[in-house]
Amino acid sequence: xxxxIFAKIALGKIEEAIKNGEFDNLPGKGKPVNLDYLDLIPxxxxxAYTVLRNSGCLPEEVDxxxxxxxxxxxxxxxxxxxxxxxxxxKKLRELELKYNLAIERTKGTKRFR
Length: 113
Fold this sequence. Notes:
Layout: H1 2-19, H2 46-54, H3 60-75, H4 82-108
Helix pairs in contact: 3-4
């Protein structure tokens, strides 16, 4: 019941903002929404991450995912020397470990009702 009241209030505020043109000049307007970053985030944490991302407050795990994706892309290059490739693979493994530890730490602090 309380949820319904808040949902109606929120919907009313959103409709009012649309009428006032408050959403007309948002960044990325008219562009497809990229949700690829959500693939590696546990489903129960996706709404919170999306809110944090939209507010410019990215958690450590998201920054790590960006770095991991960047390294993977760099590793696809044919112009890498063998030593550079080994160094990138080592860095990638370190970041993946750091990411997995951060996710486990987050799971450990999860509260149950």
